[in-house]
Every structure is written in C-alpha cells, then in structure tokens.
Amino acid sequence: MAGIALLPAVAFAQEPLKLNVPYRCEDGVTRTVTSCVTNARGGEVCYWKEQQGGQTNERYNVRSQMDGWLKTCKAPDAAPAPAAQPAAATTASTRLSPTPNPPYLAGFPSVDKVKSDVRGANAVDTLARQVATLEQLAGFLRRMQMAPGRAYMQFTPDEQQLLAAYNGAASQMADGYTRTASAADAKTFQNLEGKYSLLDPTTVTSSLALLSPATRAQFDQINRAAGAEAQARADRINGTVNGQAPPPQPPQSSNASAPGRNDPGTLAARRCLELGGTELECAAKGLSIGFDDLTGIHLNALLAADTPRGIRIGGTFKTTSGEMLGFDEKVVNVASCGKLVPQSRAYSVTRRGDALQVEIATAPKPLALTLGADGRFAGPPSFALEGEVIVGYQSVYVEQRRTSDNSVVVGSGHYEQRPIFEARTERCAFGSLGASAPTYAQSSVPALVGAIAQGQPDPASKRPETAQAPAGPRMSGTYAAAGGLRIEFQPTQAVLDCGDAHVVQPYATKNQADAFRVTIQNGNAAVALTLRPDGALSGSGSVDVTGRVVSGTDANGVTFAPRSARCNVGVLTPQQ
After folding, report:
1. CB count in 10 Å sphere of residue 363
2. Which helix (H) or strand (E) covers residue 432, if one does?
C-alpha cells in the first residue's frame, strides 16, 4: 500500500539532475547525487549523500520520487562537470573495500565473475542465464537484509553499491541485446530470461554456488530464520482472525533454505496463470504475496476472514425514480436518495421460500427488501434514510508523508478542496427495483495498481466469459469436502480444486421453494449442489476437474501441461 500512497509523485515534471554537485535545500540539508543506474526492470534508481550538522547519511530512491525535494533545492550555477566515464561504466562497481560492511558481502561474486562462470547452450541462452543470475544475487542481498535486529530495507552504502552493480549490469546486458536484436530474437531472450528467473529452480542453486562457503552458510541461516518468522506471523494472524489455533504445517523439504520456486509468491503467481490470469495480474499477485512475507502484514488472511459465506447478492438495482442499490459480496452501496451522498452498508440475506429477504443496515432503522422469483426487489414505497449531504467545500493544505517514518516529503505540500458535510434525513421510494447492471468480476488491488501504472485496463475485463453474471443471488466463501473437492466462490465464477488440478468455471444460482440450488458448469457434466439449512453444500457422485499446470517456457512464453483429477462431491462445509 506504500506504493499507492506515492503514486501521485509521478505527476511532477522531471527536474534536471546534476551529479556530484551539492544541492542546498530549504530544509537545511545539503544533498549530493553521486550516481543513477537503471535496474533490471527498466526503472532508474539514484544514490545521494545528505549532510547536515556535521553528519553524512547515504540515501537512495527511484528517480521519479526525488523530484519533490529537487524542487526546493538549488545547485551552484557553475558546477564542475563530473569526470568523463566510459560508456560501459554506468553501473556501480562491484569492487568493495577489503573489509566491506556487512562482512558477508566479501563472499558475493563480482559481475565479471558471473559473466565468466555462467554459461549456456549458446550466446542468447548464456546472456539470459547471466541476467537471471544477477537478478537472483540481488534478491539474495535483499533477503540477507532481513537478519534479526536490522531495520526493514535499510541498506548500508556497500550493500547499495553491490545492489546497484548487479541491477545495473543486468539491465545493461538485457537492454543492449534487445535494442539491437530482431523482434523474434529479443522475444526468445526475454522468454528464456523469464524462465530462468521465475520457473527454473536450478537458477537458485547455481546462483547460491557462486557465494563463498561462509556467506552461503550465513545466507542459509538468515533465510531460514526469516522464513520461520514470516510463518510465525502468519500463524498468529490466522489464529487471531479465525479465533482458533493455526493448522499444523507440513514438514519442510530438504532444500527449504533456498528462496526458490516454491516460495509463496511464486506459487501464487503460478496458480494465477494456471487459472487463466494475465501475466500482469499474476505478477502482481505474486508480488503481493511476497510483500506479505517480507513485512508480516498478511492482507489476504485479514480480507478472507472478512468475507461473508453463503448466499449474497450481486449487481445493481434501480427504481423508476432513480434510487439505486449496488451489491457486492460484502456491502451494498445505497445511492441517489435525494441529495444524500452514497453510503456503503452491510446487509444480510435470509431465505423465505422462493424469495430472499435482504436487510440493509441503514439508519434510523434497517431497510428490509424482498427479492422475488421474478428477479425484482420489493420494499417500502416511502422510507426515511439518514445520511449526509455536501453543503460546501474548504481549502486544506496537505503534505505527503513517508510510510516508513511519517516524515514529510519535501515539496509535496499543496491545497485540496475537501467537502463539508451536514447530517440530513431524506424520504425515498424503494417500492420496486429492477436489475440495471450485472454482477461484475472482482479485481485484485495489486493488479489494478499495476494496470493503471502501465496505462492498461482492468485485467479482469479481458476475460469476458467470467467478467460478469446476471444480477441477483450469488454465492460467497470457500467450501471443502472430505473427498478432496474444494470450491471457492467468487462474484461471477467458482474455482474448483481436486488434487493438483484446478479450474475456473461459471456458475448459476436458483432459489426455489424447497431449496437454494447452485449449478457449476464443468464441461459436459455440471456440478449440482444444494445449500443445506446448516450452511453446508451437498451433492452426489463425483466430479472430474481438468485444468493445467505451468510446465516451463518456450519461445512463445509460458507453457502448460494438462492435469486432471477426480473427487467425490458429498458434503462441502464452509471453510475459515
């Protein structure tokens, strides 16, 4: 979420930058930018020194996030030009002092050693392996920073130098080839590099072999401790969220020390791809899981615990006079009631024969509606609804603050117009509401942020077969049977898991006088389920789940292999 808070900074115009020139800043700090490098993903990172009161601190940040303080700083008009550097020397050097800080850095290989020791089947394969190895080594450095007692993401100058060297070399090598190669050759290289970076566990093993024995031993120790600490945090959060002791964890494999291809982020990204997700949203999914592992903030566990289970409503319903109710699996948005601003409210659903009674937590009393078999809501023709109206605006001076230490981002101050609210009660008509918009597929926050940053649409909108469903009753929550079948209901689709096979399928619901029924499309054999009074789902027979698993990559990208399994249906109980 820290990345979201800083997104507005990219709107600043890019400030010109001078290297090795002291900038005198309004906050009394002298800042001297020493170098800027392009990392392996194409972003620019700059390093600078801050001097104040006789103390000097080393800092670094992405180039776009520096523009705020640059606007408040002045550099000498006639600054001496930095010494000319050869074209190939734009990355930081891997030549560290004989006693680097921390000492383990002495056991990391130089960029030249990576180039000489890492070889492939041909020139392109060699380049892809070398770039992937440099990226892996940079990942090792970040992992080492998680040693007990160290502050999060606070690198020493020597660590910054080595990170810049690895990332800069990887970027130079990759960009240098793709800019001159044909489109087909460039794609081949990119697919190979992606394979070695994300899917090939031997890259982790070969990269670890480049470390000295002492550094490798220290890495194993820190990596195991960091993994155990992350798991302990997850157990504590899950136990707190669910109100019960966490389930026992399976034993670790013999290669658990390697931060390789079975880490939670990689597994989440693979599963996302196997279920038909786009590369953008699946990469974001993996990164969000990795962020959870780094910080111990397990947003997925917290959000899952807040997800209702059972019958929910999806879609938007509207009266002829304009009042609207927009439902998702958690809340309903009540809008267009007089001049009241829209308000989100919790709601409950109860079966009443072939109708569903929906009660919305409004004030001064709940709004009770009935969803009939005809797909329309019936409610009170006149209903008093408390809320707020906007009666004016006030100008407020605000500044951005860093999430790490709550300090003000220099130069970020600006005025915003904020509304002034006043409590009011309006009377609105909810006598009859018909469907005006369907149920839409959910979108993950990381995928949306990544899409917006790259100027792309919502990734979920690229899958029209599951992007929407008719407005009306839906299901929510995860259900599991003793025979191994597991079903996760989402607003427009259901994920079926059986053994190692999993697949996404659309589903339909129907509330009949005798029962609430759910039908999941599954090829030629639909899965028919009935919602029991105790909240479980029941069915009969068995289900064949046919999906796919990631098998590797080729010149066209990620490759998949079919995977099928059969599970008995039986009784599926709601899961925490």
Report:
1. 13
2. strand 432-437
Together in a domain, 292 and 345: no
- The contacts found for 555-558 with CB under 8 angstroms, 24 or more apart, are 555/187, 555/188, 555/191, 556/191, 557/191, 557/194, 558/194, 558/199, 558/273, 558/279
Residues 221/227, Cβ–Cβ less than 8 Å: no
Looking at 243-359, list the stretches that DSSP marks H as alpha helix, in order from N- to C-terminal side.
Answer: 264-274, 279-295, 299-305
pLDDT, block means (10 residues), the chain with 576 residues: 32 59 81 70 69 68 74 66 34 67 91 93 92 89 77 75 87 86 86 76 87 91 74 55 44 41 69 79 59 48 67 96 94 94 94 95 96 96 96 84 64 82 96 94 46 40 62 96 94 94 95 96 93 96 94 76 95 91
- Going by C-alpha positions, the residue among 282, 130, 105 that lies closest to residue 192 is 130
Same domain, 454 and 399: no
Regarding pTM above 0.85, the answer is: no
The answer to whether position 251 is within a domain reads no
Using DSSP's 3-state secondary structure scheme, residue 212 falls into coil
> Does 528 fall in a domain?
yes
Residue 351 lies inside a defined structural domain of this protein: yes
Examine the domain organization and report whether 565 and 482 are in the same domain.
Answer: yes
Cβ pair 243, 304 in contact under 8 A: no
Cα-based distances in Å from 322 to 151, 213, 360, 371: 54, 71, 18, 18
Contacts of 356 (CB under 8 A, 6+ apart): 311, 313, 349, 350, 370, 371, 473, 511
377 with 453, same domain? no
Helix, strand or coil, per DSSP, at residue 141: helix
